[in-house]
Structures are given as C-alpha cells and as structure tokens.
Automatic annotation (TrEMBL):
Residues 1-25 form the signal peptide. CDD domains: FhuD (cd01146). Residues 32-63 are annotated as: Disordered. Residues 65-327 form the Fe/B12 periplasmic-binding domain. This is ABC transporter substrate-binding protein. Belongs to the bacterial solute-binding protein 8 family.
Amino acid sequence: MSSLRFRRAALIPAAAVTGALLLSACGSDSGDDAGGAEKAGSASKTRQLTDAQGRKVKVPSDPKKVVALSEPTLDAALALGVEPVGTTAGRGQQGVSSYLADKAAKSQVVASVAEADMEKLAALQPDLILLDETTGAKKTVDKLQEIAPTVVTAKLNENWKTAFTDTADALNKKSDAKKWLADFDTQVADTKKKLGGNAGKSVSVIRWQDGAPSVVGKGEGHVGSTLKALGMDRPKDQQGASTGHSEPVSLEKLATIDGDWLFLGALGSKDDSQKAYEAAKKVTNFGKLTAEKAGHVVVIDGSAWNSSGGPLAARTVLDDIKGALAK
C-alpha cells in the first residue's frame, strides 16, 4: 500500500474504518483489500489473443489451472513446465500417452480424442482450456467457453512448431518455446552430423495393429519433418502428404513398407510395440523385408510416434533415430 493511501486512511472516521475492516474480513470481489491487493491484482490480469478459429479470447496472464484437451496441447504445456490439472487420454489409450505419463502424473483424464467429459472438466474449475482441431472437443468450444476461457491453438495438420508456439503464446510462454525450439534444432543438426553411413538412408515408419501395418508419419508432422531435417529418405509409398492420421497397408503389399530402416510401433507403450513386432514376425513375407533381414527394425514408443505431435513427441522421435542410426 502506498503512503498516499495511508494518508487518506488517516482521514477516515473510526466508524468507517471499523466497517471497512469487517468487509475486508468477509472478502472482496474487487481484490482491493489491503491484505491481498497485490496477489488478487496479479491473478485478475488478463491478455487478449486471437485463436486459430479467429475468436478473440481474454486469457489469464498467469494461468494456474490449465486443462489441455488434445495430445499436442498437453505435450506443449509439459514441455514448457506446465502440468495441466486436466487432460486427454492418448490416442487408443485409457490414460495419458505413455511417453508423457511421468510428466503428467497428476493430470486427471477428462477427455478422449473423440470428446470431453464436461462434468469432470467443470469440476476441476480451470482458468484456461487449451485444445486444437485434432480433437473432437473442437465441436464444443462454445460450451467449453462457458466453463473457462478456451483457446483453439491450431488448425488440423498445422506445422507442429507453429502449433507449439501458439500454445505457448496462450500460456504466456512464447519466449520459452522459442528457446526450446532453438535447442531442438541444434540437436537435429548434431544428430545429422553423426549419421555416418546411415545418412540419406530410407526410413519406413509403420504402426502394426490388428495383424497388419499402417503407414504413419507422412508429410510435415513431427515425424516427417524431423526425418526430412535429418536428410533421411522415405519409401516411395510414404512420400507426400497423408490422407489421414494413418494409411492401412494390405498384407499383399507388405513389400511397400520396406526400407533400409523400419521403425515399428503400436498404439501404446514400447511394451505394446514389442508385442506388435513379435506378431509381425509371424506374418508371411515379413521376414523377407530388407530391414528385417538386416536387423534394422527398431521398436519404438508408438504413443509418441503415432500421436498428433508436439515438441516432446518430436524429441522422442529424434532420440530414437539418434539411438539407432547415429554413430
């Protein structure tokens, strides 16, 4: 409290001061009470931003209870040191994506990729809700906005680095995201120098599910863009943009998933991926693949490679490639 406020207070009659103290003891919606003015003022500060849907949204300058309803927004928040109070289950999983589970141990699952549980979400009393167009919750933005300020951070198929930066902006951590990305690009450059004889080799990325493969990681997502930055090639049928999150491949065309290296995962943890690999090896002609014969099949944490993408997923992809291919 400033000296000017103290001088003014001295002029107030005793009865008025007593009344003011009683009101203060009961609490104040304005946040102007002497005991908590600074704290309340900080908590009430807001910023206005325009989200990916063109909506102007007032968000808290320092959000304390964030809910992230998509894989990329959860990933981004955790990369920036923010653990949401509520979040989404990973794609094809009951809980948080396994590659994020340790960092999101306290986050309550209140949504799936398909939809959010409004009742569970509201019970958390969030002060900021983040999502993007990779989740079905995008259809209920108006209802979400009634619970807390809601920001749609990215359009479907947005470049993951742009989506990360925009999510960071909603959290008022854009400078932190810039530093994170600079460090990531440095790691990519360092890994590229260490590829040695694997430089420029073809890399196939598949998900093995229900007895057959699906191609994932095409285009400019966190998988495709990282492989491209490393100078890695892709098999012919894995080039160009994807027609969906994944593209099934019939067993009759198993040879089309072959490459110098084959990264294989499942919708789940690395243990799930190992089980998928064991199942794949029993399929006719899988043993004839160049990658399999050369011992170049790499079992991965599918929850990261098959997710909608984010900075921590991209770093997992980079770490897996570095561990397998770098010298």
